[in-house]
């Protein structure tokens, strides 16, 4: 009986041990399977990440290829110009916030200083001819004759013809094309805003180009005729003196308009537009006298501002036409002197 009982206990113990061994083996195999699954998942994740990176790189490469296909020199030049303009605008904005800009724009002293520098430069160029020196009566040497027959420097010719052509083209465009086309096709206030931007640039550029044309013209005449370098203006050809007067008058008129007429005219235009905007006026195209609106007609302040604006605007227009006439005088001189090669 005891022997049978001992055999039963050994059987149970062996079964329990076998079961524990099986369980441990199963756990080990399960943990190994989990490790395999985890490794597989990691491999799959790494593979998917690599594939995503490759896909992104392919998309970027395709985008760059498309950009290269559709990119041409014009697009590149446009983008570069845009960056340059944005940089210039940023620098201009910083300068406008400075104290120096406030002094230059809110006082009249800078205008006087610019005028003084401009006139001084012209007088410095013309001073030997204004003072005049007695010309030598001796016979010119062979070297002087060779110098007389030599051609002027290419840079001087380039500056002379380039400045005159640019000035004449700008005058014709602003006076007869841009101004008239915008006036008859844009609302009046919009047209005024455009002219507000163009007017100072137009007259400042015109004054500078006229000065360059005048100085280079004198230099060319002195190169072609060395005896005129120190000779008084009384010994100059009257036709040449007419060119000097016309070019100097053109530069002076444009300088006066730029520094002394355009700023008050633009301020009056802002005041005038403020009155008209309060009465919902200003979107009409073409001429507007103010008589169509009863409220503006009764406003004495508006009438005063409108009158002063018209006076300065008329003076500016007349100065521009006289400057254009001076340019035509010099154009006629060129047409009579230039010989086609």
Description:
- This protein has 341 residues and is mainly α.
- It is built from ten helices and no strands.
- The protein has a domain at 152-337.
- Keywords: Membrane, Transmembrane, Transmembrane helix.
- It is found in: Membrane.
- This is Putative conserved plasma membrane protein.
- Residues 163-274 form the TMEM205-like domain.
Can I get a quick summary?
With 341 residues, this protein is an all-alpha fold. It is built from ten helices and no strands.
Give the termini distance in whole angstroms: 144 Å
Poorly predicted runs are 134-148
Strand content: under 5%
Largest sheet: none
Keywords: Membrane, Transmembrane, Transmembrane helix
GO cellular component, one term: membrane
Transmembrane segments: 113-133, 153-186, 198-220, 240-262, 312-335
Subcellular location: Membrane
């Amino acid at each position: 009986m005891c022997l049978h009982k001992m055999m039963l206990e050994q059987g149970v113990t062996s079964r329990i041990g076998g079961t524990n061994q099986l369980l441990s083996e199963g756990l080990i195999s399960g943990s190994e399977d989990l490790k395999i699954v985890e490794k597989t998942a990691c491999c799959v994740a790494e593979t998917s990440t690599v594939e995503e990176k490759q896909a992104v790189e392919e998309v970027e490469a395709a985008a760059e290829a498309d950009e290269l296909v559709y990119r041409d020199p014009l697009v590149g030049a446009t983008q570069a110009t845009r960056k340059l303009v944005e940089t210039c605008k940023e620098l201009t904005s910083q300068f406008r916030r400075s104290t120096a800009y406030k002094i230059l724009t809110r006082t009249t002293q800078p205008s006087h200083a610019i005028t003084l520098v401009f006139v001084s430069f012209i007088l410095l160029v013309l001073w030997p001819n204004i003072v005049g020196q007695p010309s030598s009566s001796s016979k010119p040497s062979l070297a002087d004759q060779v110098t007389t027959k030599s051609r002027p420097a290419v840079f001087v010719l380039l500056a002379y013809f380039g400045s005159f052509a640019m000035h004449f083209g700008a005058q014709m465009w602003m006076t007869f094309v841009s101004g008239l086309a915008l006036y008859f096709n844009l609302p009046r206030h919009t047209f005024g805003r455009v002219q507000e931007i163009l007017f100072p640039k137009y007259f400042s550029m015109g004054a500078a180009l006229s000065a360059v044309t005048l100085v280079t013209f004198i230099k060319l005449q002195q190169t072609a005729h060395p005896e005129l370098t120190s000779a008084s203006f009384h010994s100059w050809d009257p036709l040449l003196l007419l060119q000097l007067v016309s070019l100097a008058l053109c530069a002076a008129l444009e300088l006066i308009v730029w520094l002394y007429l355009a700023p008050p005219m633009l301020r009056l235009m802002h005041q005038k537009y403020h009155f008209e905007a309060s009465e919902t006026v200003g979107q009409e195209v073409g001429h507007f006298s103010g008589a169509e609106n009863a409220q503006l007609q009764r406003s004495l302040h508006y009438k005063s501002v409108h009158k002063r604006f018209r006076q300065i605007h008329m003076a500016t227009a007349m100065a521009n036409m006289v400057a254009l006439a001076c340019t035509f005088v010099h154009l006629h001189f060129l047409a009579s002197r230039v010989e086609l090669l």
